[in-house]
Amino acid sequence: MVILAAGQGTRMRSRTPKVLHDLCGRPLVAWPVAAAREAGASKVIVVDSPERVLEGHLPEGVEIAVQPEADGTAGALAAAAGLVQPGEPVVVLSGDVPLVSAAAIAALVAGHEEAGAAATVATAELEDPSGYGRVVRAADGSLEKIVETKNPGDATDGELAIREVNSGIYVFDPDALAAALPQVGSDNAQGERYLPDVLPAIAAAGGKVAVVLSEDPNLLLGVNDRVALARVREVARAMIVERLMLAGADIVDPASTVIDVGVELGEDAVVEPFSVLSGDTVVGSGSRIGPGTTLAGVKVGEDASILRSHLADCEVGDGASVGPFSHVRPGTVIGAGAKVGAFVELKNAEIGEGAKVPHLSYVGDADVGAGANLGAGTITANYDGTSKHRTVFGERVHGGVHVSYVAPVQLGDDVWTAAGTVVTEDVPDGSLAIGRERQLNKEGYDERKRNGKGDR
Ligand code: UD1
Ligand code: CA
User: Fold this and answer.
1) Which of 354, 377, 371 is nearest to 363 (CA)?
2) Is the shortest distance between the CB of 95 and ligand 1 below 6 Å?
3) Is the CB of 99 under 6 A from ligand 1?
4) pLDDT tier at 453 (50, 70, 90 boundaries)?
5) Which residues lie closer than 8 Å to 283 by C-beta, 6 or more apart?
6) Bridge-partner residues for 130, per DSSP?
7) 2-213 falls under which CATH superfamily?
8) Could you tell me where in the chain the CATH 2.160.10.10 domains are found?
9) Pocket test for ligand 1, best of 19, 46, 73, 134 (most atoms within 8 A of CB)
10) Is 224 in the pocket of ligand 1 (CB under 6 A)?
């Protein structure tokens, strides 16, 4: 299968090539690649521009064909001709038509073979066909030609009124394609070689051209500008949440919930409104996410709860609870049954089973032993201006409030730290660490001050 994806996509008005724009966690071009693979493609070829901008953005095993100059979609397909599997029908997808499904591809190929067609094109009827090539049919219903509408000049007013559009998805007999492709010229409004012009050429050579009208036009939506991208995203989001809900997750308000295509949710997982789940986030069964929570690349166990918090590239164990208003940064592993409370920032920290960091703390580059409980205002001083150092808390440490731990420093098991202590030295098992100025009460101070006798 060949996926046409060269060219900048000027209508996006972007520094990023069009087909690399993100759609629900994957670049646009990766969607048809995934569909082609799922439909059983033995080989997937993506047509790129000479700068090879797609390199490194495509899944393993996908081949890149380079179109030497952006001379149109016919030129793009010609660039891939040398790489296609000999003897097999050539399936052509568009890098900017992302929602095409494996089932739709398989049905198109089956229809093509059943009909004994030399070429088959998938079409759709759209409420708003603007920007698409229109399908002009002959009196007997067969395809006469496709007229382009991106630039004025190719289509008549009558043709512009047609609502049936070319999806940009085709199946070709390889020999018929090879014979007709060189005949496609560039005498048109854009001065480009239009791939749809190969269809009348194949018909003229005696080949049968079949047209398959899609029942789900949403699957053939193309992305040429950011308005279309938003429309496609809306459809993709609905597809994603529907699949997850049918698999047993409770997404309370799909309209305010954004979930990437790679996210997995267990049965009875609940996602409350205004939550964003991205990357390869996995949420175990019975866990409750949100409202107002972002999980980016987070593994959440079962029956955990994460309320109004932001977490990235970290793990949350079974039955653990996080939030509200916590920031959990990469490399953190929160153990089973642990509690991370309000206004807590964790970075590259291991929070042991059942341990608690309940309030207003920064714990970075630290190991917190099982069952430890760190008081409000715990701060690890992990950075000396040059390098990061680790703080290690043993099991069942009782951390006082407002305690700083100046790393590198180690506290044994069952250690206590007194409120306001600055811990700079290791603490042996079972000890109390207390390190602060003694308090001094200056009696009669207020009266002396009022009588102008100084402030001592
Ligand atoms: C194309 C079709 C149009 C159809 C629409 C469906 C042509 C001439 N027109 O129009 O009939 O309704 O798709 O979405 O084919 N590309 C290359 N090399 C090029 C030009 C384009 O690889 O030289 C790639 C693009 O990256 C894109 C795809 O081909 O993924 C389609 O090109 P685009 O310019 O978007 O064509 P449309 O005007 O949308
Ligand atoms: Ca397009």
Assistant:
1) 377
2) yes
3) no
4) confident
5) 249, 263, 264, 265, 266, 269, 271, 277, 289, 295, 300
6) none
7) Spore Coat Polysaccharide Biosynthesis Protein SpsA; Chain A (3.90.550.10)
8) 309-433
9) 73
10) yes
Q: Helix (H, G, I), strand (E, B), or coil: what is residue 282?
A: strand
Please list the residue range(s) of the chain that carry CATH number 3.90.550.10. Answer: 2-213
Verify whether ligand 1 is closer than 6 Å to residue 73 (CB atom): yes
* pLDDT per position as a tens digit, 163-222: 999 999 999 999 999 999 999 999 999 999 999 999 999 999 999 999 999 988 988 999
Ligand whose nearest atom lies closest to the CA of 9:
1
In this structure, what DSSP letter does residue 438 have?
Answer: P
The pTM of the full predicted model, rounded to 2 decimals, is 0.92
Residue range 309-433, CATH number: 2.160.10.10
Report which protein residue has its CA nearest ligand 1's atom 26: 5
Q: How far is the CA of 46 from the centre of ligand 2 (A)?
A: 15
Per-residue pLDDT of 69-97, as tens digits, reads 999 999 999 999 999 988 899 999 999 99
For ligand 1, the distance from its centroid to the CA atom of residue 3, given in whole angstroms, is: 11
b/e map of 131-149 (b: 16 or more CB within 10 Å)?
ebbbbbeeeeeebebbbbb
